[in-house]
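Reviewer has doubts. Consider these tokens.
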Amino acid sequence: MHSQTGSRLQLQGIHKQFEHFSALRDINLDIQPGELVCFLGPSGCGKTTLLRIIAGLETQTAGRLLQGENDISNLPPRQRDFGIVFQSYALFPNLSVHDNIAFGLRSQRLPKAKIQARVDELLDLIGLREQARKYPAQLSGGQQQRVALARALAPAPGLLLLDEPLSALDARVRSHLRREIRRLQQQLGVTTILVTHDQEEALTMADRVVVMNHGVIEQVGTPQEIYRRPASPFVAEFIGAMNFVESEQVDFGKLRVGNQLLDLPASFEPGDSARLQLAFRPEEVQLLPCDAQGIPAFVEQLDFLGTFMRTRIRVDGLATALTVDVDPRTARLLELHLGQSLCVRLPTEHLSCFAA
């Protein structure tokens, strides 16, 4: 098995200015060898511009890039050690699958036997040995994407860049290819940067996620950290479903939510701001029968989503309704129905607190 070793990539103070618009501001990031890092954020947040700067297709206004020990800040793309896969695959339509994969190897002037061995190995790796003589137009979208991936990996680059590689595919093919790309990446140990606006893609594939917004990095962390401990209201809202509730600090580390007092989360530094914004996930809220300890509430809406019931709950003393996800067993035990009165318990240990 031909393994390739990924290289470390450091971005130091990267800034990109387009006339009157700052596309990127003070980007600092250290990507470890063999890591899969995902740039995640809404359209226009700067993630694709950052990827293009790494590839040398855009020039940063300030800052530098190091790949391994080398300063690549001003190198043209062909002198940088990366393979790239675009959203559109960009395969050569007049070349067979075999010749598409061999393309980069031929430009390295390798011996024929070496090229053949590497192409065969990659065809086995992506499971398309039988399709080697076909042309891109004869393949499905998912197969074309695998060929584009093999072509990028053929010269064994230290860095693999994936620009929204799965967004043109349907959901089922997408989730299958996610697992495939991740398996290949781990098997080869190639350092990989994936750009996506799809949070599920980021959470399922990445070792670390870089959440971007308006040209800055809002948070870097593992998928679990980003989901469980969002660093800002933007991250909290962008990833997964989230409830936001206005609250205020009362004495002795207590919070007032509606008509109830809760303990401040241990992780929150009670600053000067008395007004707070609390954030908590729909699956963390507990629904209980009316006689239990909790805040009185009633069921305003019920949506059956297969693995859970998504409910809208009106809570005494709260201006906004809460979204609560209930597993089917709990829904049956509570005999959940519209207009039902019950009690709500908020998850003190799973609250994120932000100054309002």
